[in-house]
Amino acid sequence: METGTSGKASSLRWKILRQAILRKPNADEQSEIGIKRITRKTKQGFNLLPCHLVDDPSHSSDVTVCYTLPIDSAPKLYLTQRMVDHAELSDFEICNKYNIDNTGLVCQWPSEEVLAYFCLSHADMFRSKRVIELGSGYGLAGLVIAAVTEASEVVISDGNPQVVDYIQHNIDANSKAFGGTRVKSMMLHWNQNEISNISSTFDLIVASDCRP
């Protein structure tokens, strides 16, 4: 009896394993798998701004992610960004040329999502203000400010010229979401540019670390 019972249990385990291996993920699971490939969210995840992949990243070094802002009548935001852990020789050449790192190019950092959510939750503080985001990476927080807070101007900056190209691409892709807010990208080195020339230009400065 014990041998028979043990055999049945073993067969059942193999059956469960086989089903798990052969089972095809549904659409939501596919999206989650894709998101895990292009983000450094912690295992628990913040999930403050729901997002999903727009395109198949399997044949490209870039992906486009659609963010759904959790407020009524908010537009969707589309961000093109580099695949996680994808690096090219030119990345290191540019870093050496400009004496910078590629932190903003590596991925969309979780702290940027936290900053974006904070700005979304405190939209009134940005209304009619001139705002600059420092070290913005792909610019999620700056784009959120531009899309929902009625700021008069938003400048999204980074010190890496490759990242600034992504920022400008994302600004262009979401231009219809900004209403009357002026939005532009800027290449800005904190320790190389004359910050005093622009420090009095803005009402608010926002930034997030690469890790929360």
From TrEMBL:
Q: Give its localization.
A: Cytoplasm; Nucleus
* Gene Ontology MF: a single term: calmodulin-lysine N-methyltransferase activity
EC number(s) on file? 2.1.1.60
Group of enzyme by EC: transferase
The UniProt entry, under InterPro entries, shows: CaM-Lys-N-MeTrfase (IPR025800), Methyltransf_16 (IPR019410), SAM-dependent_MTases_sf (IPR029063)
Q: Which residues form a coiled coil?
A: none
Per the record, its GO cellular-component terms are: cytoplasm; nucleus
Give the SUPFAM superfamilies listed for this entry: S-adenosyl-L-methionine-dependent methyltransferases
BP GO annotations: methylation
The protein's superkingdom reads Eukaryota
In terms of Pfam families, this protein maps to:
Methyltransf_16
What is this protein called in UniProt? Calmodulin-lysine N-methyltransferase
